[in-house]
Amino acid sequence: xxxxxxxxxxxxxxxxxxxxxxxxxxxxxxxxxxxxxxxxxxxxxxxxxxxxxxxxxxxxxxxxxxxxxxxxxxxxxxxxxxxxxxxxxxxxxxxxxxxxxxxxxxxxxxxxxxxxxxxxxx
Length: 122
Known about the structure:
The protein is mainly β.
């Protein structure tokens, strides 16, 4: 099993930036994909970005060109750089892991989840 711990959330004004981090408790599996998801009050959880073992990335249309996902395997950490933030980006952000290389932005495809970090954009 693996534990995921997010950090880096906070409050920021529209147009600002934040960088979220997700630290895993163990070194990467031979096959995996890490994803960032978010959930706003009253809304379903939605996929934001994912990155697999080979560095292949995918993004939701709503964040393309503004968010960047990256990984540092030496630190067992995945990052989400968020620029040009909008009030609509306000949500709890979660990182998750699936033990397959194929990318996915569907929450149901992920079996391991962190506890989340709050992002508020005003």
